[in-house]
């Protein structure tokens, strides 16, 4: 009798566990679509679109369907007026976000850990929080107001583009070992504050572009074995750049800086060089036998030996101190030099 009672108790206990497990497995956490969870009416209207059963809630299945958010104020006055993305923390399957010319100034993406692409091109971005454990591969940000932007935790980052981020003083990407492209620029007359960029050793970096960074004084860059193109232009405080650890470099543009020297003897793959409008007094291109385009005008160069540059087709060496130029056995298509220069063909 006791055994039967014991078995009955065990049966009830196990049955209860199964029932509870069944209930738990089928319990769906739903997010109510209201002004508490989604305070901004424009954002809320967009979210309603994903409520496919029209019950006023987002089910877990409906939430998984929201993988991208796109608001472009340049195309729509209505979208320009969106001011908050509060509620985006519920969209845990979000992979891409694009904001262009909206009124959103503060954006917290800390809970959107599946994000891969972030594009925030707003007039005034005052605060941006990125997820720490992140899969982000691409970031585009413009008009970022804070003086710091930390991207070191983005281990999957491959592309970084910053435009008019005027208050950042130091940018460090030394921990972003998978980065392939870095593009930082300014297209306004307002002076930026970026003084130093730390890049470090980058095995996968292929492209580096820095333009109109008026305060930039130092670029720290290590071994970059696949770097193909470097464009560092209109950086009027930059006195030096080290390219000796860029063995695959084919295109180098460093015009309108204040470089006093440029060592390109290790860049034997170089095909295009623009170092115009600097303060160079000499330029050695004898190791650059693949060079096709050379623009070194508006410097203080005294002599230019081109006898090793048989593939050169375009040369501009105007406004230097060059007196003699030997271009024998070079099939130049275009040449620009001062009238006073004696040319040997």
From TrEMBL:
Q: Which SUPFAM superfamilies does this one have?
A: L domain-like
Recorded hits in PROSITE patterns, A to Z, give: EF_HAND_1, EF_HAND_2
Q: Cite the entry's keywords alphabetically.
A: Signal
InterPro entries reported for this sequence: EF_Hand_1_Ca_BS (IPR018247), EF_hand_dom (IPR002048), LRR_dom_sf (IPR032675)
Query: Where is the EF-hand domain positioned along the sequence?
Result: 38-73
The keyword Translocase is annotated on this UniProt entry: no
One GO MF term: calcium ion binding
From the UniProt annotation, give the residues forming the signal peptide: 1-25
* Protein name in UniProt: EF-hand domain-containing protein
């Amino acid at each position: 009798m006791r055994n039967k009672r014991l078995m009955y108790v065990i049966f009830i206990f196990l049955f209860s566990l199964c029932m509870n497990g069944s209930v738990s497995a089928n319990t769906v956490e739903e997010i109510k679509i209201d002004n508490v969870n989604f305070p901004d009416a424009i954002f809320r209207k967009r979210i309603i679109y994903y409520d496919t059963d029209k019950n006023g809630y987002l089910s877990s299945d409906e939430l998984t369907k929201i993988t991208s958010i796109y608001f472009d104020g340049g195309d729509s006055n209505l979208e320009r007026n969106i001011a908050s993305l509060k509620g985006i923390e519920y969209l845990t399957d979000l992979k891409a976000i694009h904001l262009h010319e909206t009124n959103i100034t503060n954006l917290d993406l800390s809970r959107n850990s599946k994000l891969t692409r972030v594009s925030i091109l707003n007039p005034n971005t005052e605060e941006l929080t990125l997820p720490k454990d992140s899969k982000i591969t691409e970031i585009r940000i413009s008009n970022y107001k804070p003086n710091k932007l930390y991207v070191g935790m983005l281990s999957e980052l491959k592309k970084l583009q910053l435009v008019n981020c005027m208050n950042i003083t130091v940018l460090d990407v030394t921990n972003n070992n998978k980065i392939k492209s870095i593009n930082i620029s300014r297209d306004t007359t307002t002076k930026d504050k970026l003084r130093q960029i730390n890049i470090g050793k980058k095995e996968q970096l292929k492209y580096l572009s820095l333009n109109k960074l008026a305060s930039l004084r130092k670029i720290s860059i290590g071994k970059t074995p696949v770097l193909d193109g470097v464009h560092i232009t209109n950086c009027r405080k930059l006195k030096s750049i080290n390219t000796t650890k860029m063995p695959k470099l084919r295109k180098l543009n460093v015009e309108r800086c204040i470089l006093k020297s440029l060592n390109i003897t290790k860049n034997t793959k170089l095909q295009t060089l623009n170092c115009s409008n600097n303060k160079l007094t000499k330029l050695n291109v004898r190791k650059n036998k693949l060079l096709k385009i050379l623009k070194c005008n508006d410097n203080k160069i005294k002599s230019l030996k081109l006898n090793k540059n048989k593939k050169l087709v375009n040369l501009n060496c105007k406004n230097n101190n060059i007196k003699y130029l030997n271009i024998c056995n070079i099939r130049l298509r275009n040449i620009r030099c001062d009238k006073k220069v004696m040319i040997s063909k």
